[in-house]
Specification:
- By secondary structure, this protein is mainly beta.
- Helices cover about 5% and strands about 50% of the residues.
- It has 1 helix and 11 strands; from the N terminus they run E-E-E-E-E-E-E-E-E-H-E-E.
- The strands form 2 sheets. Strands 2, 4, 5, 6, 9, 10 and 11 form a 7-stranded mixed sheet that branches. A 4-stranded antiparallel sheet has the order 1-3-8-7, with no helix packed on it.
């Protein structure tokens, strides 16, 4: 089993920045791709960004150029740096992990492990 614990959410004004962290523990040797999803009130959970163990990244079009995903394999932690935040970025952000080598399954919603989520609120 793998446990994912997110931190770093909060309230920020539009145009501001936040950095989310996701620490993995447990059977971390099985984890390859990691990433972030988000779910706004009344909407479906959506993919935000993914990163492989080799640091190949992918982003949803809605966050490209504003968000940066990174990974510290020594600390078993993945980060999401969010800049130029907009009110429409308001959501619960979930860390996700996959045992697959590539991030494709993760981007398609085939997630092996989820974190508990952290709230991000962007005020206008």
């Amino acid at each position: 089993q793998v446990q994912l614990v997110e931190s770093g959410g909060g309230l920020v004004q539009a145009g501001g920045s936040l950095r989310l962290s996701c620490a993995a523990s447990g059977s971390i040797f099985s984890i390859n791709a990691m990433g972030w999803y988000r779910q706004a009130p009344g909407k479906q959970r959506e993919y935000v960004a993914t990163i492989t163990r080799g640091s190949i990244t992918n982003y949803a079009d809605s966050v490209k150029g504003r968000f940066t995903i990174s990974r510290d394999n020594a600390k078993n932690t993945v980060y999401l740096q969010m800049n130029s935040l907009k009110p429409e970025d308001t959501a619960v952000y979930y860390c996700a992990a996959s045992t697959a080598d590539s991030s494709l399954r993760l981007r398609l919603g085939v997630v092996d492990y989820w974190g508990q989520g952290t709230q991000v609120t962007v005020s206008s």
